[in-house]
Amino acid sequence: MLERHHPAPLENREVIIRVRGIEVGFGEKTILKDLDLDVYRGEILGFVGASGQGKSVLTRAILGLVPKRAGTIEVLGQNLDELSSSERRLMERHWGVLFQQGALFSALTVKQNVQVPMREHLDLSDRLLDELAMLKIEMVGLKPDAADKLPSELSGGMIKRAALARALALDPDIVFLDEPTSGLDPIGAGEFDELIATLQRTLGLTVFMVTHDLDSLYTVCDRIAALGEGKILAEGPIEAMLASDHPWLRSYFHGKRARAALAGGA
Amino acid sequence: MAQGTLAHEPQLKIERAGNKVTAVLAGPWTAEHARVVETLAGEIAAQADRHHLIIDLAGVQRLDTLGAWVLDRTRHELGGSGLVSDFVNATPEQGILLNEVAYRGFQELPKPKPSRFVDFLVDVGRTVAEAGNDLVRGVAFLGQLVSAFVRVLLNPRRFRGSAVVNQLEQIAYRGVPIIVLISFLVGAIVAQQGIFQLVKFGATPFVVDLIGILVMRELGVLLTSIMVAGRSGSAFTAEIGSMKMREEIDALRVMGLDPIEVLILPRILALIIGLPLLTFLASIAALLGGGVTAWVYGDISPDVFLTRLKASIALNTFMVGLIKAPFMAMIIGIIATLEGLAVAGSAESLGRHVTSSVVKAIFMVIVLDGVFAMFFAAIRY
Question: What does the pLDDT look like over B118-135, one tens digit per residue?
Fold first, then answer.
């Protein structure tokens, strides 16, 4: 088990993302209804839910990629709807996103991909630009020779790592991870979990992780929020999830696979 | 948050005592202030004239990877000249960060020395070899195509009629408006120029012969082929290329389906049927455009136009244009599919192959038209 510093008790922690009464839908269909969620500074929040329940939709709504019909989203104490476009740009420096498929720019090398946000937002000398990009690439556990490769030349695990390096390019406060371990083999997934935990500790990140990986939930997440029927069914540490009576949570956390993960993780 | 810290800049105070130099840092040492951070780090290096440098982080409000990197780089570089330096008063988090980013050089990967002349020669050689490969692949592909066609003929249940009809709709039916419009305009323009030049010789009526022969033999089929190469050739390459990128072609193969039979044969058959039909329509539209101009601009009444047209063109004029159309279709289809199948990996590669599919197809259409012109002249058809 990883040794990690555990965040302070709930009541005196800073809320870094505050979602209140959010409603998102497409056409006739309402996906999220009256949803509330808090994410605290310095924690790793695991976000679970059945496929098609809107986990990605919530993430995209927070990031402003999907319009919401009602509700407010505050990040770092600022209501995202009330920001001017320049304030919005500043805000975007405070979060990094790891998309499910990596979303690396296919025409650029890994190093150039990592440098894109740096060039856009920071005023760096060429030397620093190179050194910092290489530093991030090494921090996510890629070999230096991966820096000059194109995304099409990378394996699935390397793409995730390169995308994580790009998400960390600006030293964000919050990192959104969309199914970071999907498509990785169990060893690779375990290493990736460990990497996230290490980076979270070193860089003081807040991590919002959408995941289906029970092992990740057991080993790295401080808190878990479960989404279903358009709202948060339950939130709390893994013990609270295990104790919940909700039928979906019971089958999720007490199924065969969950028991195996519990046996392996504990 | 950001607004609060933006007001402050990173600060540095140098204190000297005994053989120690203390650099007292304050403010945010973060990426937002990259230039100041670097300048101040240079300052520290310049002022460190004693044996021992102490970098005091007590006043640092925020330290990120950039700040930590620059500080540790400075420390490392000073260490090279025998100077001992230490960080003091770092918070536990800052300590972890400084440890994690510990300075190390990144070795430059050896890069081959570029030489413009050699690069140029390499480029030329590669292009020539590539053109040769294209030819070989084209011929090989033609063989595969024919053998797939024969297989389908021998076993007609494998013929995908609905796919052909579907492609015909995309290629021919939906292409009608734009091809007819362009042909009409070109016919009108050629007629206008013809009249304008021929009137000097008092030979205005010959514009009908000009239009009739030019449109039937060359313009109709050429305009149609170029439009189809741009409209449908690019679409083929993009469709097949993106299917290749997502392994859909491999999926077909492992299911025991032949991608040539399933994807490519219907498209090429639809092209071979559709292009002559479009050529016919384009020729009629161009004649119409020429007729309207001749009437309005050249005072040649429709009666006279039609009579002269009948006299000037024969069935062979019409056939020359039409015979070429299926060959044009073949070449457009083959180039489009080959380019589509050559797509690898990235979206950029897809774009490159779509462009090269259209460029090559248009070029080959014109070359083929020239070959046909020589052929028909030789057999006096």
Answer: 889 999 999 999 889 989
Residues B347-358, buried b or exposed e (16+ Cβ, 10 A)?
A: eebbeebbeebb
List residues bridging with A192 in a β-sheet: none
The answer to whether the beta carbons of residues B274 and B168 sit under 8 Å apart is yes
Total residue length of chain B: 381
Domain A15-233 class in CATH = alpha beta
Question: Would you call A27 helix, strand, or coil by DSSP?
Answer: coil
Residues with Cβ within 8 Å of B380's Cβ and at least 6 positions away in sequence, in order, are: none
Residue type, B181: L
Range of the domain at B53: 2-100
The tokens for B352 are 């490159």
Residue A13, both tokens: 């922690």
Q: B106 in a domain, yes or no?
A: no
The verdict on a CB contact (< 8 Å) between B348 and A107 is yes
Q: Do B149 and B91 belong to one domain?
A: no
Residues A96-128 have pLDDT tens digits of 888 888 888 887 888 888 888 888 888 888 888
Q: Are residues B180 and B239 in the same domain?
A: yes
* Interface subset of B 20-39, CB within 8 angstroms of A: 30-32, 34-35, 38
Chain A CB contacts of B345 under 8 Å are 106, 150-153
How confident is the model at residue A12, as a pLDDT?
67
pLDDT at B177 over 60: yes
**Annotated domain spans of chain A:** 15-233
